[in-house]
Amino acid sequence: MVWVALLGKLIGFAYWLLLMPLAALLSVILPFMAISNGKDVITYGYSFPGSSNGNLDVAWVLCTIVYVSLRFRGLNRFYAVFPSAYQMLKMFTISSLFTSVAMAAVNVAFKEAGVTRRTAGAVAFFALLLAWRVFMSVYYTRNPVVPFIEKEEEELAKFEAAG
User: Fold this and answer.
1) C-alpha to C-alpha distance for 153 and 161, rounded to whole angstroms
2) CA-to-CA distance for 80 and 29, rounded, in angstroms?
3) Model's pTM, two decimal places?
4) 83-109 and 51-71 helices cross at what angle (nearest 10)?
5) Cα separation, 159 vs 156, whole angstroms
6) Residues 6 or more apart from 53 whose CB is under 8 A from it?
7) For the chain, what are the domain ranges?
8) 54 Cβ partners below 8 Å, 6+ apart?
9) Are the CB atoms for 89 and 66 separated by under 8 Å?
10) Which three-class secondary structure string do you get for 36-50?
11) Reduced to 3 states, what is the DSSP secondary structure of residue 57?
């Protein structure tokens, strides 16, 4: 039974040594890549073959890697050692998903020559980027990474006023 525990720790270490640096790198690069590709599609007026599906495929692979690291107890011990890694991966994974879907929307819209469809694709691209920003703002307002000091001071002042 000792070898099973050792094997589990070895698999967890290899996962974090091989796949998680790849996931971190992809999660940082993918939003920038998708936004610049979307801007190029709108600027030049034609879609790039394979880039919308490529962005979505990379985003889903990234989500799968992060999900597996959170799902299995042996793999998520790393987050206890480095809690900022969880917050970073969560933020960048959400960003990657939104920007990849926005890129796919604009790429699909620009495959045909209709002006209405292209305008709708550009509007959808910017609407998804705006939705991404609003979602992130609302989410991190409700679930801050670090508690705000002002809230603690306000609670202390209320407690002192009551007592």
Assistant:
1) 12
2) 25
3) 0.78
4) 160
5) 5
6) 104
7) 2-162
8) none
9) yes
10) HHHHHHHHHCCCCCC
11) helix
